[in-house]
Design a protein that fits this description.
CATH superfamily of the largest domain: Endonuclease Chain A
Helix content: 55-70%
CATH topology of the largest domain: Endonuclease, Chain A
Radius of gyration: 27 Å
Shape: elongated
Number of strands: 10
Low-confidence stretches: none
Structural class: alpha+beta
Mean pLDDT: 84
Strand order of the largest sheet: 4-10-9-8-5-6-7
Oligomer: single chain
Strand content: 15-25%
Largest sheet: 7 strands, mixed
Order of helices and strands: HHEHHEEHHEHEHHEHEEEEH
Number of helices: 11
CATH architecture of the largest domain: 2-Layer Sandwich
């Protein structure tokens, strides 16, 4: 059995194995049940290392040791491996989230906040600007920007965006309504879709013929999404704090929404 190097490299990355573990597991999958000697011959992993690698794969759940002599190993179905890794990832994520939530109650977190607000050189309000990369990070900044508004938010995006991120925007709109924040919303796209969105979220979005995506808070700060159709990790937004520019943009937004 010939194992393609390309397959070895891909499986190694997908499953978080080292090169020997990957070769041995692929060889075992191809054989079904095999001894360490047989696996060493197929995988071309040194026999002296094959025993340790098989033990490692057994501990990780990729193989099962068959009872009896001589010692042989049985391959575990890839489907079972994926389900186990998925459960482990979910467990690790939940533990990480719990740990992060507890962080807010620590003295270290209090010190971090103090460093940011009253440090050696505090960040000035007018200096807040920068580039934000990655769709998830961008949405987190949108949430932070709009939910910290005092009076008014301005949202310009597409009907498709609202529909695709329905849960995110539903939660955002509810929070803004409870805080009595005025929402001015303009959406591009099919008018029938926009009407459905207005009914679903109980908002009054205007139709706008501009293919743009930006979010403004209190005519003070604005976040522009400047990339389109890219992979989630490659999406880029620009965050600006400039009341003069925001006022001008707000005026243009109103004019475009009226038209």
């Amino acid at each position: 059995m010939i194992i393609k190097p390309e397959l070895v490299n891909q499986i190694k990355e997908y499953f978080g194995l080292n090169i020997y573990e990957t070769k041995v597991w692929l060889a075992l999958l191809g054989k079904g049940i095999a001894s360490a000697g047989e696996i060493a011959e197929i995988s071309r992993v040194p026999r002296s290392r094959t025993y340790d690698v098989l033990e490692s794969l057994e501990k990780q759940g990729f193989a099962v040791m068959k009872l009896g002599k001589p010692v042989k190993y049985i391959a575990v179905k890839p489907k079972i491996i994926i389900e186990k890794l998925k459960s482990n990832a979910q467990k690790d994520a939940e533990e990480k989230i719990t740990s992060l939530l507890k962080l807010r109650d620590t003295s270290e977190y209090t010190e971090l906040e103090q460093l940011y607000t009253v440090g050696i050189q505090p960040v000035r309000h007018e200096d807040i600007s920068g580039a934000i990369k990655g769709r998830l990070t961008i949405y987190n900044h949108i949430k932070e920007l709009l939910e910290n508004s005092k009076k008014e938010v301005l949202i310009c995006t597409s009907a498709n965006e609202i529909q695709a991120k329905s849960r995110f925007f539903s939660s955002l709109f509810d929070r803004l309504k409870r805080a009595n924040i005025t929402m001015r919303i303009a959406l591009s796209g099919d008018e029938k879709d926009i009407k459905k969105i207005n009914n679903k979220f109980k908002i009054k979005a205007s139709v706008i013929n501009i293919d743009a995506k930006f979010y403004m808070s209190d005519s003070d700060q604005v976040l522009f999404v400047i990339s389109k159709g890219t992979a989630p990790d490659e999406e880029i937004a620009v965050w600006l704090n400039t009341p003069f520019f925001c006022s001008a943009l707000s005026f243009l937004f109103n004019q475009a929404a009226k038209e």
